[in-house]
Design goal:
Helix content: 40-55%
Radius of gyration: 26 Å
Shape: elongated
Low-confidence stretches: none
Mean pLDDT: 81
Oligomer: single chain
Number of domains: 2
Largest sheet: none
Structural class: mainly alpha
Distance between the termini: 94 Å
Strand content: under 5%
Length: 246
């Protein structure tokens, strides 16, 4: 009996000794990184940027009839009722302001990083292009959208939510923002071809600028043919007088 007690006591002592040294609950996470860790390492910065590129997939899936209903409150039907109104992995998210917010945070971090000025400009230019592309895809489907610029909004308990309720800009203002951002991004980006042509350069930004300008000009010039497709505040629709500006 005495031997058993000694064995138990020894076991308890060993457990206490190992647990006190292990500090299991005090270990640093290997999957969560601080801003300082990210923006002090060029490879980490590029890794985050790659994540943003991976989140800008747009387009309706021609092999999936349901995707054509993603901008309508009504669901599609094919010979009978359909209950498919789920959004797996945010696949149909159109107002992706989470991505906009992440890009705004990223741009601030890059500006304050230890990268040399050329790398700072180039990476910021790519981020601004991605942001412009995200806005463009919202605007061409939905008209004018809330524009937050570089601002990063934070909510704290008790604050007036009205501060976060940004109204829609006009369709013209929204397209003008995309065009302006593409102009600035083009100034920051180089002309060389990137690896596998998978990253934006100056010509990518200018191509999006041209496309946004063409869309805006077409809406202004031909909107009169569909007079019902507009709102009183011009959130949808661009005055014909602005067509030549683009």
């Amino acid at each position: 009996m005495m031997i058993n007690k000694k064995v138990i006591l020894l076991g308890v002592c060993l457990i206490c000794a190992f647990s006190s040294c292990n500090k299991f609950l005090e270990r640093e996470s290997q999957a969560i990184f601080t801003d300082d860790q990210i923006f002090s390492d060029q490879n980490m910065i590029k890794s985050v940027l790659a994540n943003y590129y991976g989140r800008i997939s747009w387009g309706q899936q021609f092999g999936d009839n349901g995707s054509f209903a993603m901008l309508d409150e009504a669901g599609f039907s094919s010979g009978g009722p359909n209950t498919m109104q789920e959004f797996p992995n945010d696949f149909w998210r159109m107002y992706d302001y989470e991505l906009i917010r992440n890009l705004n945070q990223f741009i601030v971090g890059v500006r304050q990083s230890s990268l040399d000025e050329n790398n700072k400009k180039s990476i910021e230019g790519e981020a601004r292009f991605i942001r412009a592309w995200t806005y463009f895809n919202m605007i061409k489907r939905l008209g004018g959208v809330p524009l937050v610029g570089d601002k990063i909004y934070d909510y704290t308990g008790g604050m007036d939510p009205a501060e976060l309720q940004i109204p829609r800009s006009t369709e013209a203002e929204s397209y003008n923002y995309v065009i302006s951002e593409c102009t600035e991004a083009a100034k920051m980006l180089g002309i060389e071809k990137t690896i596998s042509s998978a990253r934006a350069n100056k010509w990518t930004a200018l191509a999006l600028k041209a496309r946004a300008s063409l869309y805006a000009a077409s809406i202004a010039k031909y909107n009169y043919k569909t007079p019902d497709v507009k709102t009183a505040g011009n959130e949808v629709g661009i005055p014909a007088a602005e067509a030549n500006k683009y």
